[in-house]
Write a structure and sequence with these properties.
17% helix; 5-stranded antiparallel sheet; alpha+beta; elongated; 11-stranded mixed sheet
């Protein structure tokens, strides 16, 4: 009798639960507010890349990042297969390659699998900016230092360069590094880095725009000051205006650039009246980075879908 009653109670519990759920199904209460829209599905393939000609160091390199490809893409520049870099932790698939000769007309081709499983191809073609050089500069040439400027808030630095064929704009990177001495105590200044994006072929900038005002306030106390001001100029071709569409065509979107470097130009800055010393090798290494543009644009390859010029405008000042 107890077993039958126990079995009956279990059956009654399940029937009651089923009835409650059925009633809830028929008589729904008021619905709550709709939550925010969820993230969108897989986006289209996006390609970011550039080639860089650097005649001073005889380096000609290509860098491409393919984002939102379901499989490992194949990427070529001028029909040369780029190498997939397993060591670079980028969002996407990162490729690079060193070439033996400068880029001129540059053809990018990529094949990939989209996130929804379809095979696709994309391409871009650009003419690289021509080689160019510094033609004029402020300050006289010193036999020991080269262009030599006194450390003074009144100093203005200027450089001019020859036009680069096919260039759409120029990016000037300035690296400023110095040391000064007060009562045998040496203090470092920098390195400070600045960028300027212009369409002209000359740049003029006061030293007060580059060096902190607090340093000039100590001029009367200084026993010595030794600084280096390095200018790097790069000619760019590729999308650069705000809102300008990318130049990758086919089954992908994106932006591709060709860049040509001009040999860097170095000013030395000394405190007037101090004894001349041989420039320090370590100071020169701090003031003249060999791969500043590479480091900067490589950071752009990891950023959201903005042009490299928009990224440079925001990203370099330190």
């Amino acid at each position: 009798m107890k077993i039958r009653l126990y079995t009956f109670n279990i059956a009654l519990f399940f029937l009651t639960t089923l009835a409650i759920f059925s009633a809830c199904d028929r008589f729904k209460g008021p619905e709550g507010l709709t939550g925010p829209k969820g993230p969108s599905g897989p986006g289209s393939v996006f390609i970011k890349g550039y080639v860089l000609n650097n005649e001073k160091y005889k380096t000609y390199t290509a860098y491409v990042n393919v984002i939102n490809s379901k499989s490992l893409p194949s990427v070529t520049v001028n029909e040369v297969e780029l190498t997939y870099d397993f060591n670079v932790m980028y969002i996407g698939h990162y490729f690079n390659k060193a070439f033996l000769t400068p880029f001129q007309t540059t053809q990018l081709n990529a094949s990939f699998t989209t996130m929804d499983g379809k095979e696709g191809t994309a391409t871009a073609q650009l003419t690289a900016p021509g080689s160019f050089e510094i033609t004029e500069h402020s300050h006289d040439i010193d036999p020991l230092y080269g262009p030599l400027a006194p450390f003074s808030p009144d100093e203005i630095f200027s450089i001019s360069w020859s036009p680069s064929d096919n260039a759409e704009l120029y990016v000037v990177l300035i690296n400023w590094f110095a040391t000064y001495e007060i009562q045998y105590k040496t203090t470092l200044v920098g390195p400070h880095r600045y960028n300027f994006i212009i369409t002209d072929t000359s740049l003029e900038i006061p030293l007060t725009d580059l060096c902190p005002e607090s340093i000039f306030e100590k001029i009367d106390e200084m026993d010595d000051f030794y600084g280096m001001l390095n200018f790097e100029v790069y000619a760019f071709a590729g999308p650069h205006n705000p809102g300008e569409p990318g130049n990758i065509t086919g089954d992908a979107e994106g932006m591709f650039y060709t860049i040509t470097a001009c040999p860097s130009f170095l000013f030395t800055v000394r405190l007037p009246g101090t004894a001349k010393q041989v420039p320090s090798t370590s100071l020169q290494e701090e003031a003249v980075p060999n791969n500043q543009m590479n480091e900067l644009i490589d950071k752009w390859l990891m950023q959201p879908e903005s042009s490299v010029v928009e990224f440079i405008e925001k990203g370099l000042v330190e």
